Amino acid sequence: MSRIAKFPVALPKGVEATLAAEALSIKGPLGTLSQRLRGDVKIEKDGDKLVFKALDDSDEANAMSGTLRALAANMVLGSPRASRSASRSSESAIARRRKATS
To answer: Measured by CB atoms within 10 angstroms of the end CB, which terminus of the chain is less buried, N or C?
Structure first.
């Protein structure tokens, strides 16, 4: 098992995780983020935690379990503030373009 995948991802209050056959969706107060899943990693929802496990002993499954765990953790961190940070970055990009053209 990956060293990263050993640690569960905690779901804070206001953040929901939905597991489907092909995708993991994290819904927060400001939006929803989703990630496609692979068949060699099993994700279980245990109360307010997500647990990741490689289904076989292959190096690829081991690596993907840690990768998907890291992606899910970042989705959980970003879901409460996803819309705010995206709008700030686009606003600053628009302002930079206006300065460059004027």
So the answer is: C
Instruction: Look at residue 3 and tell me if it is in a domain.
Output: no
| pLDDT-flagged residues of the chain (< 50) | 82-90
What single letter denotes the amino acid at residue 38?
A: R
pLDDT digits 0-9 by tens, 71-95: 999 999 887 664 444 444 445 556 6
Tokens of residue 96, six digits: 């930079």
The full length of the chain comes to 102
The angle formed by the CA atoms of residues 69, 70 and 76, to the nearest 5 degrees, is: 90
The pTM of the full predicted model, rounded to 2 decimals, is: 0.74
- The enclosing domain of 56 has a CATH number of 3.90.930.12
